[in-house]
Amino acid sequence: MQLDPDDDRILAGEEGETRQKMLELLVALGKVFGAERLVPIRSAQVSGASYKTIGEYGLQWLNTLDAKAVVPAVLNPIGMDRGRWEEMGVDKDFAEKQEAVVAAYGRLGIGLECTCTPYYLRETSYGDHLAWSESSAVSYANSVIGARTNREGGPGALAAALIGKTPCYGFHLGKNRTPQVRVDVQIATRDWTAADYGALGYHAGKLVGNRIPFFTGIRPDRDQLKALGAAMAATGAVALYHVAEITPEAQKNPYAVAGLEKIAVERMDIAAIFKETLVEAVALGCPHCSPEELKAVGRLLAGKKVKKPLYIFASRGVIDASPDVVTAIEQSGARVYADTCMVVSPVMERYASIMVNSGKALAYVPDMCGAVARIGTTEECVKVATE
Ligand code: F3S
Hints:
Blueprint: H1 5-11, H2 17-32, E1 38-40, E2 43-46, H3 51-64, E3 73-75, H4 92-107, E4 130-132, H5 135-145, H6 154-163, E5 165-167, E6 181-185, H7 194-208, E7 213-216, H8 222-235, E8 242-243, H9 248-252, E9 262-265, H10 267-271, E10 281-284, H11 291-301, E11 310-313, H12 316-320, H13 323-331, E12 335-337, E13 353-356, H14 359-369, E14 372-375, H15 378-386
Helix pairs in contact: 2-6, 3-4, 5-8, 7-8, 7-14, 8-14, 11-13
This protein binds FE3-S4 cluster.
């Protein structure tokens, strides 16, 4: 692999043991995946932030590191809202360990936002190279923004944050970003909501697997693209997709898709996913809500009181930027939590059935929360929680 003189100095240990080890890790990853060089990154998003995931050994390892991030970096959602863990039912011992993990990342210069939607916090642009970890964030960056990132493991993303580079292979290379399968949606989608796109992603991900799909017949907005990509990354392993005339690379490149395998999606495929069942609680914000989604929930809850627990998850940055909306939502009895999410937080584990507006949550809630999951639109979710 080609390395520059700065890299050689780091590898020689002239900038400390942590940077040396981190660059060794990136070089080893690059060799495994056939990278010819490292590429500078604009930002990193680091998974392995929940104490539940990394445990005592992970925490001890983080505390051995001594370096500072050289690019903006954030964490993936952790197991609790850092300011409201007690009301979430998180025990004190876990909360202290979780705080210790966050503090360890803080010492390394990683921003203490814990979110799967870093793109709401910091501008990410077309063509930017990134080292992001969380699958929905990776999908959004690659597909909706046209940035370039592989789905990094936690140590790889952390190493990239500390070095400012990542191995240049996979989705960093234009030649690996062309469509591999065509998905023709043969349904009138003009009135579709994000939940419908989540259901489409839930269905399509199972058929597409880890290939790059090219969608026709849909015109999703950005929140709907977020829902589509998150669900496909959950039921499949889709890290990049294109939508004819909508996503940036489909707009810029005259992709030849006529000869690709075709998957047709029909009305019944999607309708079958919207099965009604009684639920004990409702959860919104998978991926974390955008400012517009938070406002929409506020409008739907105006003048109402929740009769079933309703939880909404968003990044702290989005929550802090919308204090009036959050106050109005919480006046209904609903709760808006930062730093964590419906899947990694223990708050949802106390319910046997949960309604969501997300195809990704529909896929994850049964295994991760041990609950039956039902999908509906945001409007239906609020109705179920308040009537
Ligand atoms: Fe984000 Fe958690 Fe969903 S990380 S995409 S809210 S499962």
